[in-house]
Specification:
With 562 residues, the chain is an all-alpha fold. It has a domain of 259 residues. 63% of the residues lie in helices and 2% in strands.
Length: 562
């Protein structure tokens, strides 16, 4: 049954890619859509209010500076809100809250939501007021998601334009991403969750008396306002500490399916947008095919690992797979699918406890995180993540046939190659450096409270890989709420969001200045299965060269010890 669901999910994602991709193309190019009669007046009013001149375009450097200033501004405002939230009216009652956030936790949380990481070293229902969730976290899920999609639009224009000094206007792309994409889809998705039983209220927490005679506190709140946009905006931070395993956040298999679809649909559709705007539609489909292939490979490995009987239970004559840490409403199949979906994108929502997975079951999401959002990826960030590696593949392929490397009609010269190399090397430099720092310091090792040895090292590596990928998934054995991890994970989140985006935008600006090259008989085709295989090989080779020793010290050696 689970494998049928896997097939239905992938078929739905691929089936939605063309219509959604075509719609995103119209939004990016400011062409007419069916929402224009309602949204155009609102768009104009927002430009007037914000002082934006939509006809004025920006160079890649100015576009990147606007993106940086927007992100820093959002993080600063959210930080102030979190520090002052005790002055806010409304629930929940103070008795259910643990107290004010520390400065380092508030800063970490603000940066994590501004970067779509939503790394949560706290429990939402016992830490935040309702108004903090709605005015701070929900709003930031929309704004950060729109900022990422805007960067994706700007990056695509770098390949679509010829002899151009500009790649668009960040504020225009931000407003259009928000009004034409996230707000309408977020409204529809949230209403669907309410229909399925996800609460949306400001009610006090409920005290229930259990059959054992005990008292249980059942948290309430505006849950539906956050739960859909966290996935659509590829953020992932849940209203509850249990995230998608909580029955209020994710009550049915249908809500689970809707949430996973919200994560992947728009990033997959952007491959079609890329193909349409660059007039290389088959190249866009090739990138999507590569994503689907890598997704299926990881899903098969993780599914097999979790369905196998745990070796710790060998000899007990038990039948079935690894149910530890799985939500019984979803079982192994839906938990595995959700794990693979969320670790591919910069989303990080979950419905199972990943630290209870088998070593190979942990290896799969960890590898996806280290690949750097090349499988679907974040909203907007996924498109430049896969294209930057595709540029490296085109470079390597051209070297093998003795031709000047080209991709999407643009030559990959020495100037662009420097930025491509910096992009590819950034993730291993940040993740491995911070992981080594954590292992070598007492503050870093002290947080590994439950597991030592290979699993403890995996927990540390997983944390920094997740933050660098702006994902937010974590293994529970790492007690991350302390000054050391709140600070160092914040460094990884900023590098993953803004460092990589700036590099990608600068490269896009260089490509925008070029004229499109007419393909010749010596041009390496980029829209064939052969190039798809080359791209997959490049992705796996880069990951192996950069991270195989670290993986060998973590999940691989743990697997061999069983």
């Amino acid at each position: 049954m689970s494998r049928i669901e896997y097939a239905i999910f992938l078929a739905t994602v691929v089936g939605l890619a063309y219509p959604l991709g075509s719609y995103l193309t119209r939004v990016c190019e400011r062409r007419r859509t069916f929402l224009d009669p309602v949204l155009r007046p609102l768009e104009t009013a927002l430009y007037r209010l914000l002082g934006v001149h939509p006809e004025e375009e920006m160079s890649a450097s100015i576009y990147a500076a606007c993106f940086l200033s927007f992100g820093i501004g959002c993080a600063a405002l959210l930080f102030l809100l979190l520090m002052l939230q005790w002055a806010l009216p409304g629930g929940p009652a103070d008795a259910y809250l643990t107290g004010p956030m520390t400065v380092d936790l508030a800063a970490n949380t603000a940066v994590s939501f501004a970067t779509t990481t939503t790394w949560q070293a706290y429990a939402g229902e016992s830490t935040l007021r309702y108004l903090s969730q709605v005015t701070g976290l929900v709003a930031q899920n929309f704004l950060a998601g729109a900022g990422g999609l805007a960067v994706g639009f700007g990056f695509i224009r770098g390949f679509a334009r010829q002899s151009a000094a500009t790649i668009g206007n960040f504020w225009v792309d931000l407003v259009r991403s928000l009004l034409w994409v996230l707000l309408p889809l977020g409204l529809i998705g949230s209403l669907a969750l309410i229909w399925q039983g996800v609460p949306l209220n400001m009610s006090p927490y409920t005290l229930a008396h259990t059959l054992e005679g005990r008292t249980q506190v059942i948290a309430q709140g505006p849950v539906a306002a956050l739960e859909f946009i966290k996935n659509l905006g590829t953020n992932g931070g849940g209203f509850f500490n249990a995230n998608g395993a909580h029955p209020y956040a994710n009550p049915t298999p249908l809500t689970n399916f809707i949430g996973m679809l919200a994560i992947c649909a728009l990033p997959a559709a952007l491959m079609i947008t890329l193909g349409q705007l660059t007039q290389r539609i088959r190249a866009g489909w090739t990138l999507l095919a590569v994503m689907v292939t890598l997704f299926i490979g990881g899903l098969a490995v993780c599914d097999r690992a979790e369905r196998a009987p745990p070796p710790e239970l060998a000899g007990l004559h038990l039948v079935g797979g690894n149910l530890e840490g799985k939500e019984v409403r979803f079982g192994i199949g839906e938990s595995t699918l959700t794990t693979v979906v969320t670790s591919n994108a910069s989303t990080g929502s979950y419905n199972a406890q990943h630290d209870s997975y088998q070593p190979i079951g942990v290896l799969v999401p960890l590898t996806y995180l280290l690949l750097g959002e090349v499988v679907f990826g974040g909203l907007g960030t996924g498109v430049y993540s896969i294209v930057m590696v595709a540029l490296m593949a085109a470079f390597l392929g051209a070297l093998m046939i003795g031709r000047t490397p080209e991709y999407l009609g643009k030559k990959v010269t020495a100037a662009e190659t420097r930025w491509i190399a910096l992009y590819v090397l950034s993730t291993p430099m940040v993740v491995l450096t911070l992981s080594a720092l954590a292992v070598l310091t007492q503050a870093g090792r002290a947080a590994v409270s439950l597991n030592g040895g290979p699993r403890g090292f995996t927990e540390i590596l997983f944390a920094y890989a997740s933050c660098m990928a702006n994902n937010g998934l974590g293994l529970s054995g790492l007690s991350a709420n302390n000054v050391f991890y709140n600070t160092t994970t914040m460094v990884a989140m900023l590098a993953g969001r803004y460092g990589l985006a700036v590099v990608a935008l600068v490269a896009a600006g260089l490509f925008a200045r070029q004229r499109r090259v007419v393909p010749s008989s010596g041009t390496l085709p980029i829209d064939t299965p052969t190039f798809g295989v080359l791209l997959i090989g490049t992705i796996l080779l880069l990951a192996a060269v950069s991270f195989l020793p670290a993986l060998a010290m973590g999940p691989i050696v743990e697997y061999l010890q069983h």
